Fold:
Amino acid sequence: AQRVTQPEKLLSVFKGAPVELKCNYSYSGSPELFWYVQYSRQRLQLLLRHISRESIKGFTADLNKGETSFHLKKPFAQEEDSAMYYCALSGGWSGNTPLVFGKGTRLSVIA
Amino acid sequence: DAMVIQNPRYQVTQFGKPVTLSCSQTLNHNVMYWYQQKSSQAPKLLFHYYDKDFNNEADTPDNFQSRRPNTSFCFLDIRSPGLGDAAMYLCATSPPLGRYTEAFFGQGTRLTVV
Structure:
């Protein structure tokens, strides 16, 4: 069964401090991993996907298959990063496996 | 421009009175999803359509039904809402999900049951 675990409900950091939002997953095949973000009063939207190995708004995430983790990191937090962050997993290439979400972590960046 | 639109944004219904939530998309995506999200919980998938193929999650209550009359529209019907069905309901669309695709979400409908 697919499962995504985000152990922290709330993470508070000071502006300029490093951020790491943790995500662990369980899946029997080769999953696709994503981070979605929801800013206040906005819709849920994609932040980044593991296959792209991209940096979006200074955030990066590396898929570690050995540890089954996909932690989200940013070296210097900004106030505008305050939001709800969801790690999500899909089954990949089959095209008919929907997204499964973790419970989310609320990031609060303190000025 | 909103690409996935949910109506209404807020819905209040009486205990046991059928209610329908609607979702429309302008993206022409094959796949449409309905998620239920309760406070401080993960969005929980209720069902999804791949074109006209309907996929019901095993633990979705029978009280919840869905219709997709065409590519653009999808409805969530709750036949007899209970107090426990109060939640945010999220609609999303995507092409067939894979490495380079993403799901697009509506703003959600917050359902209150009184």
